[in-house]
Write a structure and sequence with these properties.
The complex is a heterodimer of chains A (190) and B (698).
Chain A (H helix, E strand, L loop, with lengths): L9 H23 L11 H15 L1 E2 L8 E6 L6 H4 L5 E2 L2 E7 L11 E4 L5 H10 L5 E4 L11 E6 L2 E7 H6 L3 E2 L1 H6 L2 E3 L1
Parallel strand pairs in A: 2-4, 2-5, 5-6, 6-7, 8-10
Antiparallel strand pairs in A: 1-9, 3-4, 7-8
Chain B lengths: L1 H19 L2 H23 L13 H5 L19 E6 H7 L4 H4 L6 E5 L5 E5 L10 E5 L2 E2 L20 E8 L3 H4 L6 E7 L7 E9 L2 E14 L2 E12 L14 E14 L2 E16 L16 E19 L2 E16 L3 E18 L3 E16 L5 E3 L3 E18 L3 E12 L3 E12 L5 E12 L3 H5 E8 L12 E6 L7 E15 L2 E25 L7 E27 L2 E15 L14 H4 L3 E10 L4 E10 L10 E13 L2 E8 L5 E2 L14 E2 L1 E9 L1
Parallel strand pairs in B: 4-7, 23-26
Antiparallel strand pairs in B: 1-6, 2-3, 4-5, 6-7, 8-9, 8-34, 9-10, 10-11, 11-12, 12-13, 13-14, 14-15, 15-16, 16-18, 17-22, 18-19, 19-20, 20-21, 21-24, 22-23, 24-25, 25-26, 26-27, 27-28, 28-29, 29-30, 30-31, 31-34, 32-33
Helix pairs in contact in B: 1-2
The chains are: A alpha/beta (190), B mainly beta (698).
Chain lengths: 190, 698
Amino acid sequence: MPSPLIDRSSGKMLPRSLARLLLVFLLGYGLVMPQRSALAQPALEYQVKAAFIYNFLAFTHWPGNGAQVINLCLYGEDHFGQEIDKLQNKSVGARPIKVLRSNDPEQLKQCQAVFFSQPVNDNLTGIMRSLSGKPILTLTDHANAISKGAIINMNLIDEKIVFEINLGSARKSGLDISSKLLQLAVKVHQ
Amino acid sequence: MKISGYFTWLFFRIRLVKLIGLRAFAVKLLVIAVLTDLTGMAAAQGNSATGNQLLGLSLEELMDIKVTTVSRRPQKLSEVASAVFVITQDDIRRSGVTNIPDALRMAPGVQVDRLGTDKWAVSIRGFTGRFANKLQVLIDGRSVYNPIFSGTLWEQQDTLMEDIERIEVIRGPAATVWGINAVNGVINIITKKAADTQGTLLTAGGGSFEQGFVSARYGGKMNEDTPFRVYAKGFARHHTDAPSGASNRDQWQSGRGGFRIDHHRGNDQFTLQGDIFANAIGDTYDKSVISLQSSPTNNVRGQNEGGNIRFRWDRTLSEQSSILLQTYYDRVRYQMSPLFSFDTESFDVDAQHRFSLWDRHDITWGGNYRLYHSKVFENGFIKLTPQDRTNHVYSGFIRDDITLIPNRLYFNLGTRLDHNDFTGLEIQPSARLAWTPDTENTLWLSVSRAVRTPARAENDATLDFLQFGNAPGLPPLPFPLKAVFQGSHSFQSEKLLAYEAGYRHRFSPQASVDISGFVNDYSELRDFSLGGFTLNTGLPRQIITSVLTDNSAAALTYGFELSGDWKPTQNWRLQGNYSFIDMRISSNPLTKDFDPSVSGADKVTPQHRISLRSNYDLSDKLDINLWLRYISNIAYYNLPGYVTADAKVSYRPAKNIELYVVGQNLFSRNHQELAPDFIPSIPAVIPRGVYGGIQIRF
């Protein structure tokens, strides 16, 4: 039931305030227009995840001398854009990082690390299983991925990125994960 | 700067963001920081696209960066230049508080007084009282506003304390963003996402004042993209005593349950959330004030129950562009015979669109519709005419976050237009400027206008149960004076023009301070005037006067809040704050002594408040947390200042188990914090309390 008391103050307030507001808006735009520059904004989340991946590579030791190059492969949809390519300029110790995108499960066997960018479904579980036991660091960012064979999984908790490690899978693969990573992991699965 | 200064700058940003917890702000600033500094660096080095600056950060630092997508809470962006304090889940856990109002004592500028087992008065920067009406309180975006007196009934606002992600306390007007009633501040209670509350949590315990509590939560997944949680809790709290020592019979039993389902699909995020609760409460009224002798005044028991359901849809259109749709329905039934019984329901729809324009403008605009329906049951004390009423509020808002100089100067401009049934159109603009001259300093200024729209009671109510043995300010009377409060249809909105300034300084990553000052210029505040006096010829013999509501009071308040955060060592954190306020109120001199809500508010507000917290981790398994508070005297009720302390010791024998002991109000057997207004409940003294508990997670 609408009230009978409506619009007592509206009549005079609106035009003056609106005019003032418009003026301030115009001034504001006038001030900043000449200075604008083209800024493209990448997704911070994946920027941070790329930085995490860089750390994961840095704190993992592969068995033997291994390949000189660390092949970091991306499987599935690419959310990183250029962020992950920036790792290409980096190296871990003396080993340069090479970023590859591949959706061919066979090719993944050439990689030292694989990031699976989609939920681990039945199909992906198969692929992961085919990689298990090989010295390949499998990385994911989806809940439950650890139980399906991923070695390091990133999660978003309280707006921050945390990670969990499947130490059992890592050992099976012959990978040596630094205690630094194990300390910082929210959960270490044995 | 560029390269060397960059990281300190970035760290400061991260720190600052942690401090004030603004997600969108974090993202924007970080993104801008990274990009603009990159541009600068590229120019300096002649080396383009060197890449992600975050690659230089340590894992610990990476784990500290907030990364939520830009779109999630766009409205926060504009809050850069405001006095914001965040109470985190860790703060809540370590403080040992068992309810939301007590948690708010941690924030500077907030006055929290417990009036009884189930009653609190909460306000920011003055004008407190059980029916304090200048705050906007939101739980997960749902306004918990009672349209009858335009305030918050705190006993109804609860959830699983463990599920609260954080409480953002914004001092000062934030009406442009948060709407009507965000005059003195906003309290924004945000619970965790369902994905963050997976697994089982069981809590149980009890003690002296907290007689017993039990809660359970289970979080699972319907499928990979659809996490959910359900919870239930219950507690029993002891009654408080009157200063005389008699029981106030306000023992409180409560049961509550709820759920949350989040669903993520592509660019869309959906949330469905709901709660139901029931409280059994009680009260004792002051017989000398209540004029109807026939009514029971002690051992009055009542109950309230309610529920709400909320749906929210977020769609990310692009990095800079998003839309948000939210709707909720909330219903409460409150039965406290004979004084106070009502039903209220509210329905709300909110839509927002955010986009960026010409790179430097980040614009958010939207609209809101809210419906309030309230029904106040007829009794001999409070009468609302009409008894049953539906009110509508229509709002539109626009605001723009403008980057004047990247990394250095930000300007925020916005306004909100609300249309309500009582006063028509209200305009609430604000302008805010934030300046970060270097990595350690932030300075901000703001001017804003906010209004507090009339409550139904101010329009429709007649209260004719209050009598005074002696009318304050009048010569002694031969008979008691019975005051008949009368609402007024010409009651206007209360207005505030606020000038604020703030400064944040970071000494090191371990130490920072934040100071905010304000001058609040209130006009057309509620006041009361006395009508004619008549002698009641029947029995009881009374002099009857009508007390009319008008807008003739004004106030000028000023003050500041200082807060500091220091980590002397890795395992020790100290947080302290000091709040000062001075209030100058001009009102009808007759009302100063019987209206604590406005006219006498200067004497109800303690000038000084201090809170000091120490959180110390003896080991991973054992932490000791202490909390010291000082509140200066409250002249209106002749209450002396007091110092009190809480302490909590937590022990985790295994990863999933926590045992704890909490002591509350340790320094004295009991103390009185404030006294109830309007509803003449007997004041309560708040006792010392000890309780213990166990929490299991799996």
